[in-house]
Amino acid sequence: MDQADTYITFVRQNQDILRDKVNEEMYIENLFDQWYTSSMKVICVWLTDRLDLQLHLYQLKTLIKIVKKSYRDFRLQGVLEGTLNCKEYETTHTRLTVEEATASVSEGGGLQGITMKDSDEEGEDVK
């Protein structure tokens, strides 16, 4: 999970830097919208290229964490629901949910609490 944590920390630090340095709110909102949309598109394309392959457990856990925390962090930065729930996000969410179900059956609970399902307990590590 170090890979996912490193990525999430990187994104959060850069969001904070942009908020501190750029004073034009409309520009920041547009930038965060584009950043989120581009991130989801990259993940979606990567998953689409691998439609016929099941994800490795490590890939699945890392992607679930990145997608969920990105969604939450960009929502906190003011990205609107319409942008957050874009086609790429919905496609990614569906694929990861199916992969999670497959992994839980075949791995016998190897996800160690990492899940696409929303829960209130996950809010404790939002910075």
UniProtKB/TrEMBL annotation:
GO biological process, one term: dense core granule exocytosis
Region (Disordered): 105-127
Superkingdom, taxonomy of origin: Eukaryota
Residue ranges the record marks as coiled coil: none
InterPro entries assigned to the protein according to its UniProt record, in alphabetical order: CAPS, MUN_dom
Domain MUN: 28-74
GO cellular component term of the entry, any: presynapse
PANTHER family on file: CALCIUM-DEPENDENT SECRETION ACTIVATOR, CALCIUM-DEPENDENT SECRETION ACTIVATOR 2
Name of this protein: MUN domain-containing protein
